[in-house]
Amino acid sequence: MELSVIGISHRTAPVDVRERFSLSDEQVRQFLRAIHAENIFEEALVLSTCNRTDVFFVSAGPRDGLGYFIEHVRKIKDLAGPMDTSAFYRHSGQEAVNHLFRVTASLDSQIVGEHQILGQIKEAYRLASEERTSRFLLNKLLHWSFRVGKRVQSETQLGHGSASIAQAAVELSQRVFSELAGKSVLFIGAGQTAQLAARAVIRGGVHRVIVANRTLSRAQEVADDLLRQLPQAPDADHDDEDVEVPQEIKCPALLQMFPELKTRSQAAPSAGSPNQLEVRAIAMEEIPSVIAGVDLLISSTGSPDLVLTCKTVGDILRRSGRPLFIVDIAVPRDVDPALGKLTNVFLHNIDDLNLLVARNIDRRRREIPRAEAIVQDEAGRFAQWLDSLQLLPTVRLLQQYFETLQKGVIQRYGHQFKADQGQLDLLTQSLCKKLLHKPLTFLNQLPQSAGASENLAAIDLIRRMFDLDSLEK
Q1: Active site residue: 50, 251, 310, 432, which one?
Q2: pLDDT per residue over 442-467, tens digit each?
Q3: What is this structure's pTM?
Q4: Which domain holds residue 457?
Q5: What CA–CA distance (Å, rounded) separates 234 from 267?
Q6: 211 with 298, same domain?
Q7: CA gap 433, 32 in Å, rounded
Q8: In this structure, are 315 and 373 located in the same domain?
Q9: Do the domain assignments include residue 329?
Q10: Do the Cβ atoms of 366 and 403 come closer than 8 Å?
Q11: Is 47 helix (H, G, I), strand (E, B) or coil?
């Protein structure tokens, strides 16, 4: 049995190279269907995100996984010309296991400690399961990797604290307000950073979101998108551990801000609820008419000039007397520093956020050794489990099990029979051999009757059926 992985990631190639080998969900399905139909590999799984494309293969012996992948990528994506594969890495056996566990633990992510990778791996596993290319070994390996990811999240602080500017803006806001629930937020700008921050505050339970942009149609587009991506209330019978990141949310480097996109406690309010979220779009000229009614303002435009000046909104804010927390993410700055001198305005800029991000990243780096120790511990445990599924040790344990069973019966009940003890011993030995004949024949015929994955599944079933692991210990 050969477990291997071939891949390309942000560590080995720039984005213009990675995107040539990136696959959409439908393209992943096409590739997995080809594997299932051609039966060259017994099992396969594809993990394709904005930062990596990893393909795991299980085969009876060594195979050229990279050549096979490139051949099918050409067909699926209709690519022509030479393809440089020098940025691909290859791991097999225990190295492939270690690689997957490090990826799942977010130790190999562009932003170390991000939570999205665990959901992305679950999605990759779902696709492989539906296309019937994930069987016994990958099933066990993937579930083991989920345990690794959850251990790292719960036993270390690797994923604690914001590691992006957008997330830091929300974290800083949460420090000011005891909670975001019920607050009104104004976003100036409709770029990627603003969208990420908007989704994060929505998850925090804000009551109203206003998106202002120079182009009203763009602001409306972002507002509509925010409403479409509201977390849905989960099925009452759906286990929280099985909740996965939506398929369209792929990139951990961009989506670091909101680690869980679907939770029971933060589901979107039902229609007609008094706390139902309001999302609206306005033009820049309308900002003075709404600014006095918001609690938080996050600005992130690309304007070379100030967008919010003391001249345009200073008197409005002064008269309102309402506290307003402003986070200016833009460079050059969007917000007039003079606004920060108003007694009811609390202004923070990009330097404050950079300091917060730097501290959090430093804290995450200090957690890396603890996370690596968890990965090594679990990888060692997986290796022990895999070693236990070798045929000859299992046959010996099975024989030992029946021998122990026979001796135990003689010891416990032998005195109740008048027959010669030697004859009784031969009788029980003969009976045990007859009972043992079928499972031994089944195990010995496995190499000729099934593939490597089926062999492991059958051996694992026998070991669990007769509780051979406890006998071995």
Answers
A1: 50
A2: 777 766 655 667 777 777 877 788 78
A3: 0.64
A4: 391-472
A5: 7
A6: yes
A7: 44
A8: no
A9: yes
A10: no
A11: strand
